[in-house]
Description:
By secondary structure, the chain is α+β, with helices and mostly antiparallel strands.
Amino acid sequence: MKPRWIYWKQTFCSKFQAGCLKAKLEENWHNGYEIGPCVEIKKLKTDKYVVRYTFDEIG
């Protein structure tokens, strides 16, 4: 089964900016009771970056 990705509503000009959001999303679940999301940064054809995440198990 393919994961259902949730895309962040904002695109970023640099991979660094997207990476900051990725770290923030992962940190929100770090000390929680839930299993955190799988977070990825994808480069778009427009040379911008988007962050997507899923709670589905991959693998």
